[in-house]
Amino acid sequence: MTEDKNKHPEEQVLMEGDPDTTGHSWDGIKEFNNPLPRWWLWTFYACIVWGIGYTVLYPAWPLINGATPGMLGFSTRANVADEIQRFDDMNADIRQRITEVELAAINPTDNPDLYNYAIQGGAATFATWCSQCHGSGAAGVQASGYPNLLDDDWLWGGTIDEVHYTISHGIRNEDDLNARYSEMTAFEGILTEEEIGAVVQYVRNISGQEHDGALVELGGQVFYDNCAACHMDDGTGDQFLGAPNLTDAIWLYGGSEDAIEYTVRNARFGVMPPWSADASEVGRLSEAEVRSVAVYVHSLGGGQ
Amino acid sequence: MSATEEPQKLYASREPVFPKRVSGRFRNLKWVIMIVTLGIYYVTPWIRWDRGPNLPDQAVLLDLGGRRFFFFWIEIWPHEFYFVAGLLIMAGLGLFLFTSALGRVWCGYSCPQTVWTDLFFTVERWIEGDRNARLRLWRQGWDFHKIRLRLTKYIVWLLIAVATGGAWVFYFADAPTLFIQLVTGQAAFVAYTTIGILTFTTFVFGGFMREQVCIYMCPWPRIQAAMMDEDTITVAYRDWRGEPRGKGKDRENLGDCIDCNACVNVCPVGIDIRDGQQLECITCALCIDACDDIMAKVGKPRGLIDYMALTDEANERAGNQKKSVWKHIFRLRTIIYTVLWSAIGVGLTVLLFIRSDIDVTVAPVRNPQFVMLSDGSIRNTYDVRIRNMTHENSVFEITLVSDQPLQIELEGQENNTVEVPVDSTLLQRVYVIAPAGSAAADENLTNFRFWVEDLSTETRTYQDTTFFGRDLE
Ligand code: SF4
Ligand code: SF4
User: Fold this and answer.
1) Which of A77, A161, A267, B295 is most buried, taking the most CB atoms under 10 A from its CB?
2) pLDDT tens-digit readout, A196-217
3) Which residue's C-alpha comes closest to atom 5 of ligand 1?
């Protein structure tokens, strides 16, 4: 349509040779009824043929119990399984080697490849199995007594071998005979009220916190008689027994007077399942995985 | 509304187009542009550029696996992708600029669709002859002669198409190595499929689809209208000069157009520019050449069909002075595009020169924000990523500057140094410790600065970050 600039669009008339309009008019603008190119129609038919072929070859039509499987037997699930298998095969060698070297040798200098694998794999395993209690950042949960794994204070030892042992066998569980084991006495009823109050002040004293100086002497005596067997004479604890160091700044259950008093009266301790499938029936992790987690935890800043 | 007797057809089959050979100034310009653009495309991957022993020596290389983009002396890392984004924005703005000034010059001269179609036309003309011969060939039945010509044409087209698809993959790997691999059947599967797809599209788009791509498939003709206005220079027919057209010898009552159809015959999209500006017109200007030729023969001034703007049309009709070309080109719109385009260009160039060969990013680990150690000191953890963009293995020292007594420790490293291999990045866990009772340990936030120094070249760079304390308040 050749446009006449002086005319309002409403008045635009069709010229000779112009195609028909669709008959629609929007604010005076009419739409030409141009025929579609035929090849475009053919691409449309081709798409239909393709679509039919596709639904025959690939899983497509939803039925009551799943979809039609398709003639090619394609399945994303099987693909994922294959993919996992492929990676397992690729990693088989390195997993084997991780179980063969000394734990301490899995470090960036001696075995950078093993170390790298252990850190990455350990982080994934940790996120799956350990983070529920210890937190995704491994900082623990003080309110529930789940220890922080980032600091330099270890109940059962912070060397890579000790960490590995703890992960393998767990703590105070009945599934693994080699689990770490010890138990604090609940002193409610064993110690007098006065003695309890005094020993709390004594513990506050040796950990460098505010305390009532008048009770320290009595408290020291109570401590020496009742607590030192596990927590040692100087209160620095014993990692062999899992008895915490009471002189440092880190408190598993809190270091306030109330928290300490509660612990003295009722005793507190945590449990942890055994993870090594080799060590117990309930263990879920292979040796390579346990070792990877150990290396990962050890690398978080607290490892000794 | 014209009432039609018979119902209109919903689908139209394609009208084949047999453009005639033409020569003239715009055709020559198109030849030059075709040679230059195709030359750049086919030759670039083979240019060598020495970058030392550790890096590829291909001048232009998109190393997808290694995540590097090499362009002569420039090397782009993934974190510098804004360079690529910037270039794309510049390409877009450049296209806007040219379109608002000169209409569809992109379509007419440098779009790959145009250039390759032009190349395919050239081959076609060379094998099957010019317009009339091709028309005859098309109408006649299949005989040996026709089959031979068609086969030859298809084979040559196919060779061009394979070369086109082939050249593409050379941008993504070392060209000579890949060439040998391709020939000996050892190249990656994806290389063959890429070549296959591009061969197919080149062959089909250049040989058969041609103007159909521009008219029905390409979005650009729809978009470009937004960039054009009455000052945009585009191809148009001076109907006030040409009409009434006519073939007659007696030109008393006739315009300059002798209705020879030369302009229609050369048009690669098969339209008649004398009907006015049309969506199909890619402004290749071949009709200008064709018409100029005729005008010279009949002794009339050139430019019955010419580059002009809508305002010119109105002016000329009214017998007024024509605006100069420069007035059309330099107007607010094009100036804004130019300014934006140059601003980005200058910005990118400056960035290119001030970027350093080492780069560090510090990500404070905030889960947890801090850890208290058994002596009461407070420790923060940082993931420090060092990118060694120098061409050698380098040892980097990480230090920190603060007015607080902060100490630094590197996970797994003896001292505060770490080696980063050539052309790679390294993630290093760094601990920063504030002694018990220090201000940094007890306050909420303390700012400090990490310095990372390449010990061999002594270049250094820094990153500011914060230290989280216990916030005793
Ligand atoms: S219409 Fe599209 S494909 Fe055709 S020449 Fe223009 S940009 Fe290229
Ligand atoms: S009308 Fe002229 S400028 Fe437009 S496509 Fe045809 S030959 Fe090219």
Assistant:
1) B295
2) 999 999 999 999 999 998 999 9
3) B107
Vertex B429 angle, CA A96 and B399, to 5° = 145
- The residue whose CA has the least distance to atom 3 of ligand 2 is B283
Cα(B380)–Cα(B450) distance, rounded to whole angstroms? 13
Query: Are B51 and B39 within 8 A, CB to CB?
Result: no
CATH classification of the domain holding A123 = 1.10.760.10
Reported confidence tier of residue B250, pLDDT bands at 50, 70, 90:
confident
| Residue A153 CB neighbour total at 10 angstroms | 21
Secondary structure tally for chain B: helices H, strands E: 17, 15
Residue A121 lies in a domain: yes
Which residue owns the Cα nearest ligand 1 atom 1? B214
Contact B452, B397 (CB under 8 A): yes
Does residue A16 share a domain with residue A55? Answer: yes
What is the extent of the structural domain holding A236?
A: 193-266
Tokens 């093993």 -> residue: A114
> What number is the average pLDDT over the span A133-142?
91
User: Looking at the structure, do residues A160 and A287 belong to the same domain, yes or no?
Assistant: yes
Q: Is residue A80 part of a domain?
A: no
- pLDDT for position B456: 87
- Name A267's Cβ contacts closer than 8 Å, sequence gap at least 6: A183, A184, A185, A186, A187
Shared-domain flag, residues A250 and A119: no
Specify if A88 maps to a domain: no
Residue A7 above 80 pLDDT?
A: no
Q: How confident is the model at residue A142 (pLDDT cuts 50, 70, 90)?
A: confident
Q: Which residue on chain B is closest to A299 by alpha carbon?
A: B411
Tokens 């008339």 label which residue?
A13
- The ipTM of this complex is 0.79
The ranges of chain B annotated as CATH 2.60.40.10 are 358-468
Residue B17 contacts A where some CB pair is shorter than 8 Å: no
Enter the CATH code of domain B358-468.
2.60.40.10
pLDDT of residue A131: 95
Contact A7, A15 (CB under 8 A): no
- Give the pLDDT confidence score for residue B319 in this predicted structure: 80
Q: What is the number of structural domains in chain A?
A: 3
* Same domain for A164 and A121: yes
By DSSP bridging, strand B358-365 and strand B378-388 are antiparallel
> Omega before B244 cis (within 30°)?
yes
Taking contacts as CB-CB distances below 8 angstroms, the residues of chain B near A108 are 412
A 10 A CB-CB count for B241 gives 16
Q: Looking at beta carbons, which residues of chain B come within 8 Å of A2?
A: 275-276
- Whether the CB-CB separation of A277 and A286 falls below 8 Å is answered with yes
**Is the pLDDT assigned to residue B174 strictly greater than 60?**
yes
Are A167 and A280 in the same domain?
A: yes
Residue A240 and residue A280 in one domain: no
> Are A25 and A147 contained in the same domain?
no
Residue B210, amino acid: R
Does residue B246 have a pLDDT over 70? yes
**Neighboring chain A residues of B412 at a CB cutoff of 8 Å:** 107-108, 299
Report if residue A78 sits inside a domain.
no
Instruction: State pLDDT tens for residues A44-100.
Output: 999 999 999 999 999 999 999 888 888 998 999 999 999 999 999 999 999 999 999
Q: Tens digits of per-residue pLDDT, B185-197?
A: 999 999 999 999 9
pLDDT of residue B6: 60
